[in-house]
Automatic annotation (TrEMBL), chain B:
GO cellular component: plasma membrane
Membrane topology: Peripheral membrane protein
Species this chain originates from: Jiangella rhizosphaerae
Annotated ABC transporter domain residues: 5-230
Name of the protein described by the UniProt record: ABC transporter ATP-binding protein
UniProt-listed Pfam families: ABC_tran
Key word ATP-binding present: yes
Single GO MF descriptor: ATP hydrolysis activity
Length: 549, 308
């Protein structure tokens, strides 16, 4: 690793005439970004606001009386739920406001963090990687205009979402005050802002947009896990996480604004470091420089599968490391849950014994692993499409490689990779959980639960395969299926969705494990459906024109 | 003589755009065939149909005796392709890309690979992204030319090469020709095609407008001549095939049909040539000259049709 150095202090020679600063052209770039994302931005903003605001009216339907709400609160104040959603504030008098903060804030914050990372990288490193930044920077454009414009747009989107939430939430649910709702909006926006800063910085590190996004998402995952461990025990760790700061506003309960100042300060710091890095490096280069490669290809690089493996290897290793750490971390929380329940006899009446609570907690953790593995599967299939649009499929398909063999090579990575991820994450979870509980049977049960999710994961992935074969430009629609599974899987306990809403999620059948019974019929049906969709996708890919748009 | 490529009446549309409009193309085995046309005429689309990457809407396509769509894999073992816009994998070195593409085709000739790397002066250890356009093209060229195949399909292969590398490329293609192999070479540069090709097909707006040997197409080409002479030139306008003649004192500028070039230069020598520059016509000029009337007529017809 080495740091690239540019010419010494170019700012001194800058500005031969008035107006030439490192920010020249920012406004034009902002308008250009808004124009490019005239569909994407409204979808992000609209989806987040509508999902939050639209869910609020269901609160009084699901929890009509104070007694209903208190009963829900009883379920929250234990390490299992705290690890998954955050510290439960205001459970003594569980208002709709406290409910909103405890049950929704985390998920909205994560979504906005994800949005910020993806949009920041899209408008900085991705542009640089394609060489378009070079074209723009050759014109009258300041060195920091690109980062500044992207950050302004992303920050603007976050602030807009925050404001819309602040204004619309009270109208959707009377009990929510405007001032508290504005703090809720500000809290989730603060997480978005920090991760816009994270995205600005990770975009500096590597030459490749994919790696920059991956690094940003890894930081988001770390922020989520840090606060989980912190919320359960060592609270200092939660204060290292942007999500922790947002939750510590105690919005709707105590309404503290000051934790958000930390977020603003950290954002400013991250952007400043990104600026400083931009000033020191060459356009197109990262902090990590590409090393020369081998003059000859290794023996494994002789087949489409070898190529697909080589292309997706880095991503798979990154995802694998993430899921293993996630599994290890959450498995280790099992002992906290056990201690908590055995110390608390009244809780045992409400929740049942520690075993039930731990099983429920583990079921949710395994489902989170499954959602992550499915997300990986989708990115791996999208990679196949990217190879086509980037024009790199063409030379391969002009050799003695059939369409089906080419597509199948990436599918093997997608399907096999998601299985490996589930095995890795499941093993990590099983290992620490069975050690923490001193219960050997937990090991097999958790590993089994992880594997039982595979048909569902493959079904989600197979939807993307069918789209690539039939309507390739719509492949990203497959993310809707995953989003549905996330909402249903993570928020079902709170929203009490109707049965059929749950049942059509591909990750529902194995969700009762390790405590309950596997929906065997559903698993078989999903397996058959997945095979059918893959077959349709491959058939479509064989019959259609190769396209680059 | 057998036919390597036989395309008849092929139509390919993208939405409302008719990219290929009844295209006919015949390439005999063992010939180097130039496939000439301006940008957007349908050269790359034709090549993609030949490679089975696109499916023709109608018409018949035969490639090495097979169907490029149905027999794609078997046919691709016998041909090599260099795309016009070479995209390499950012995290693979050029050497790895060459080996991969060669192996996927069924193996490559090690000696030729090394020989071509030397001749094209290509560093195989650089990663895909760090290559310039010309070097990416060289990677694809080395990968294609190291294979032992019967047919080479090249889509504007020299567009990024410097003159030195272009000369190397010409040499290599000449060697292929000597081995009796077939080459389809698309280009928009007439001089390149003139240097290498036995026969030429000219495509415009998805249709072949001219096809034949270079000699047969000689009437299409004119050379621009600019000369300074010791004495003012006279009588040049009496010679056949002279166009756009301008004489200013000792300077003379004119276009001449390439078939009449010899006579024109002989005439000039009589006045004591001091400087002489000749410029082959660009394809665009050629098209403007030969199809300009036709284009104008078509446009007029279209406008008349629209207004009536």
């Amino acid at each position: 690793m080495s740091v690239t150095t540019a010419q010494p202090s170019p700012r001194q020679h800058a500005a031969p005439r008035s107006g030439g600063t490192t920010l020249t052209g920012t406004v034009t770039l902002i308008r250009f970004i808004l124009r490019r994302d005239r569909v994407r931005l409204p979808i992000w903003i609209g989806a987040i606001v509508l999902l939050v605001v639209g869910s609020l009216p269901t609160f009084p339907e699901t929890y009509p009386t104070q007694a209903d709400r208190q009963a829900r609160a009883e379920l929250l104040d234990n390490p299992a739920t705290v690890a998954l959603t955050g510290p439960a504030y205001g459970t003594d008098d569980y208002t709709f406001g406290a409910m909103t903060a405890n049950e929704l804030l985390l998920w909205v914050a994560i979504t906005m963090g994800l949005m910020s990372i993806l949009l920041m990288v899209r408008h900085t490193r991705a542009e640089e990687e394609t060489g378009r930044t070079e074209l723009l920077r050759a014109g009258v454009l300041g060195r920091h205009a690109g980062t500044t414009a992207a950050f302004t747009v992303v920050a603007g989107a976050n602030v807009l979402i925050g404001l819309l939430l602040g204004v619309l939430m009270p109208s959707a649910l009377d009990e929510l005050s405007v001032s508290s709702s504005l703090l809720f909006g500000a809290a989730v926006a603060s997480v978005g802002l920090v991760f816009a800063g994270v995205g600005a910085l990770t975009a500096q590190v590597t030459e490749h947009a994919r790696a920059a996004s991956g690094l940003g998402v890894a930081v988001l995952g770390a922020a989520f896990s840090l606060r989980a461990i912190g919320d359960v025990g060592a609270e200092a760790l939660s204060w290292l996480s942007p999500i922790g700061w947002a939750q510590r506003t105690k919005v709707y309960v105590d309404d503290r604004w000051w934790p958000l100042l930390i977020a603003l300060a950290v954002t400013a710091l991250l952007v400043a470091v990104a600026y400083a890095t931009t000033s020191r490096r060459d356009v197109g280069a990262g902090l990590v420089q590409a090393r020369p490669g081998s003059p000859r290809a290794g023996a494994r690089l002789s087949s489409p599968l070898g190529l697909a493996l080589r292309l997706q290897r880095g991503g798979l290793i990154g995802w694998g490391a993430g899921l293993i750490v996630f599994g290890l971390a959450y498995g280790s929380l099992a002992s906290s849950i056990e201690e908590f329940v055995s110390d608390n006899s009244t809780l045992q009446d409400v929740l049942g014994d520690a075993g039930t609570l731990i099983d429920g907690f583990m079921a949710l953790v395994v489902q989170m692993l499954a959602l992550l593995a499915a997300a990986y599967g989708l990115t791996a299939v999208v990679r196949l499409r990217n190879e086509e649009t980037a024009g790199r499929a063409e030379p391969v398909l002009a050799t003695a490689v059939s369409r089906v063999r080419f597509a199948a090579s990436h599918l093997v990575i997608a399907m096999g990779g998601s299985l490996l991820l589930m095995l890795g994450g499941g093993l990590g979870l099983a290992l620490t959980a069975s050690l923490a509980l001193d219960d050997g049977s937990m090991f097999g049960k958790l590993l089994g639960a992880s594997v039982a999710h595979m048909p569902g994961i493959w079904l989600i992935t197979a939807v993307a395969v069918a789209l690539v074969g039939l309507v390739p430009h719509l492949v990203h629609l497959s993310w809707i299926v995953l989003t549905y599974a996330v909402i249903v899987g993570m928020l079902a306990g709170f929203f009490q969705f109707p049965d059929w809403v749950m049942k059509i999620s591909p990750l529902d059948a194995a969700s009762p494990l390790p405590g309950g019974d596997l929906g065997t019929v559903a698993v078989v049906i999903m397996g058959v459906l997945a095979v059918a969709l893959i077959w349709i996708g491959l058939l479509g890919f064989r019959r259609r024109d190769l396209t680059t748009t | 003589m057998t036919t390597a490529i036989d395309v008849a009446g092929v139509v390919k549309t993208f939405g409302t755009v008719r990219a290929l409009d009844g295209l006919d193309l015949r390439v005999s085995t063992g010939e180097v065939h130039g496939f000439l046309g301006p940008n957007g005429a349908g050269k790359s689309t034709t090549i993609r149909v030949l490679l089975g990457l696109l499916r023709a809407d109608s018409g018949t396509v035969r490639l090495l005796g097979g169907d490029p769509w149905d027999d794609a894999v078997a046919l691709h073992r016998r041909l090599a392709y260099v795309p016009g816009d070479v995209n390499l994998w950012p995290n693979l070195s050029g050497g790895e890309a060459i080996d991969l593409l060669g192996r996927l085709r069924g193996g490559l000739d090690e000696k030729r690979r090394q020989d071509l790397l030397d001749r094209f002066d290509l560093d195989p250890t650089k990663k895909g992204r760090t290559y310039s356009k010309g070097n990416r093209q060289k990677v694809a060229l080395v990968a294609a030319l190291s294979s032992d195949v019967e047919l080479l399909i090249l889509d504007e292969p020299t567009s990024g090469l410097d003159p030195l590398m272009e000369a190397v490329f010409n040499e290599v293609i000449d060697e292929w020709k000597d081995d009796g192999k077939t080459v389809l070479l698309s280009s928009h540069i007439l001089s390149e095609v003139e240097k290498l090709c036995d026969r030429v097909s000219i495509i415009r707006a998805g249709t072949i407008v001219e096809s034949g040997t270079l000699a047969e197409l000689r009437h299409l080409t004119r050379t621009s001549i600019h000369a300074e002479t010791a004495r003012p030139v006279t009588g040049l306008d009496q010679l056949p095939g002279i166009h756009d003649l301008v004489v200013e004192d000792h300077r003379v500028t004119f276009d001449v049909d390439t078939a009449q070039l010899d006579g024109a230069v002989r005439h000039l020598t009589g006045f004591g040539i001091q400087t002489l520059t000749s410029q082959p016509p660009t394809l665009e000029e050629l098209f403007l000259r030969h199809y300009g009337d036709e284009l104008g007529a078509e446009q007029a017809a279209a406008e008349a049709g629209a207004s009536s």
